[in-house]
């Protein structure tokens, strides 16, 4: 995740490996999940909903270019950034290595 740098992905800030359990520190997304945001704001205009979809698509295209498969894209796994943008989060992901074999990673969001 440290190699990822995109405005529509939640940024990894650091890791606290000496903590039990292991802590992964991610960018704060004060708007919560897209799922809860949509429930709270059921009157959002179509243009705003499309903007959230475009944000998510941009994040997914970035991951695709890096041969990363998210495996669980859903509104519950997208967070709302401080500028009301949608950011992909909750990486339970697979990454292809140089041999084309997939390695699986699970990363926990700590906000």
Automatic annotation (TrEMBL):
<dbReference type="GO" id="GO:0005524">
    <property type="term" value="F:ATP binding"/>
</dbReference>
<dbReference type="GO" id="GO:0004713">
    <property type="term" value="F:protein tyrosine kinase activity"/>
</dbReference>
<dbReference type="InterPro" id="IPR050198">
    <property type="entry name" value="Non-receptor_tyrosine_kinases"/>
</dbReference>
<feature type="domain" description="Protein kinase">
    <location>
        <begin position="1"/>
        <end position="111"/>
    </location>
</feature>
<dbReference type="Pfam" id="PF07714">
    <property type="entry name" value="PK_Tyr_Ser-Thr"/>
</dbReference>
<keyword id="KW-0067">ATP-binding</keyword>
<dbReference type="InterPro" id="IPR001245">
    <property type="entry name" value="Ser-Thr/Tyr_kinase_cat_dom"/>
</dbReference>
<keyword id="KW-0547">Nucleotide-binding</keyword>
<protein>
    <submittedName>
        <fullName>Protein kinase domain-containing protein</fullName>
    </submittedName>
</protein>
<dbReference type="InterPro" id="IPR008266">
    <property type="entry name" value="Tyr_kinase_AS"/>
</dbReference>
<dbReference type="InterPro" id="IPR020635">
    <property type="entry name" value="Tyr_kinase_cat_dom"/>
</dbReference>
<dbReference type="InterPro" id="IPR000719">
    <property type="entry name" value="Prot_kinase_dom"/>
</dbReference>
<dbReference type="InterPro" id="IPR011009">
    <property type="entry name" value="Kinase-like_dom_sf"/>
</dbReference>
């Amino acid at each position: 995740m440290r190699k990822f740098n995109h405005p529509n992905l939640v940024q990894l800030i650091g890791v606290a490996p000496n903590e039990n359990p292991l802590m992964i520190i991610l960018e704060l997304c004060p708007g919560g999940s897209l799922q809860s945001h949509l429930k709270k704001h059921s009157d959002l205009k179509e243009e705003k909903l499309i903007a959230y979809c475009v944000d998510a698509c941009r994040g997914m295209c970035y991951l695709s270019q890096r041969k990363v498969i998210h495996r669980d894209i859903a509104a519950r796994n997208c967070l709302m950034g401080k500028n009301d943008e949608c950011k992909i989060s909750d990486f339970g992901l697979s990454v292809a290595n140089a041999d084309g074999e997939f390695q699986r990673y699970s990363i926990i969001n700590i906000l």
